[in-house]
UniProtKB/TrEMBL annotation:
<dbReference type="GO" id="GO:0043953">
    <property type="term" value="P:protein transport by the Tat complex"/>
</dbReference>
<keyword id="KW-0813">Transport</keyword>
<dbReference type="InterPro" id="IPR018448">
    <property type="entry name" value="TatB"/>
</dbReference>
<keyword id="KW-0472">Membrane</keyword>
<keyword id="KW-1133">Transmembrane helix</keyword>
<comment type="function">
    <text>Part of the twin-arginine translocation (Tat) system that transports large folded proteins containing a characteristic twin-arginine motif in their signal peptide across membranes. Together with TatC, TatB is part of a receptor directly interacting with Tat signal peptides. TatB may form an oligomeric binding site that transiently accommodates folded Tat precursor proteins before their translocation.</text>
</comment>
<dbReference type="InterPro" id="IPR003369">
    <property type="entry name" value="TatA/B/E"/>
</dbReference>
<dbReference type="GO" id="GO:0033281">
    <property type="term" value="C:TAT protein transport complex"/>
</dbReference>
<keyword id="KW-1003">Cell membrane</keyword>
<keyword id="KW-0811">Translocation</keyword>
<feature type="transmembrane region" description="Helical">
    <location>
        <begin position="6"/>
        <end position="22"/>
    </location>
</feature>
<feature type="compositionally biased region" description="Low complexity">
    <location>
        <begin position="118"/>
        <end position="129"/>
    </location>
</feature>
<dbReference type="GO" id="GO:0008320">
    <property type="term" value="F:protein transmembrane transporter activity"/>
</dbReference>
<keyword id="KW-0812">Transmembrane</keyword>
<comment type="subunit">
    <text>The Tat system comprises two distinct complexes: a TatABC complex, containing multiple copies of TatA, TatB and TatC subunits, and a separate TatA complex, containing only TatA subunits. Substrates initially bind to the TatABC complex, which probably triggers association of the separate TatA complex to form the active translocon.</text>
</comment>
<keyword id="KW-0653">Protein transport</keyword>
<protein>
    <recommendedName>
        <fullName>Sec-independent protein translocase protein TatB</fullName>
    </recommendedName>
</protein>
Amino acid sequence: MFEVGWTEILVIAIVALIVFPTKDLPRLLRTVGQLVGKARRMAGDMQAQFNQALREAEREADLSDLKNSIQNANPLTDIKKTLDPVRTFGDDLKKSVTAPIPPQAAESAPAPTPTDTPAPTDASLPAAAETPVDGPAPVEVARPAETPPPAGTEKPVEGRAPEASSSDGKEGSAA
């Protein structure tokens, strides 16, 4: 508020010694101290009252906002918003129950016969690759008939691997 440095205080003290007699100086300093204390208390009280009035104004504004929100609130809309997903699920369920059942594709299309599908000609493919993982049970596929061995070679005994390597590069594989 008032910025008084040490030099100003020294000037004031020298003027006070010259103007006032020395016997009245202690009483004068005590009175000045009391007046400064009262001024500080009054300034503090005014600041506290101002802050309190400001807080009360904020509280009144908050209360009026709360009052308006309570008056404008409709509990039925809140309940409707909460139950909206349940209502849509119920509507979907009702539509699915009342809708006519469409004919299945299996009934309208004829089932394929075994003669319609050609047998695979490549014997090197494993049977597991021909059926899907989650599909129907595996069906054995007919393999093409083996050609007779060339003249002058022995016919391999069943259960034993042939001694000569086959043309596809697999050795010792049993089917």
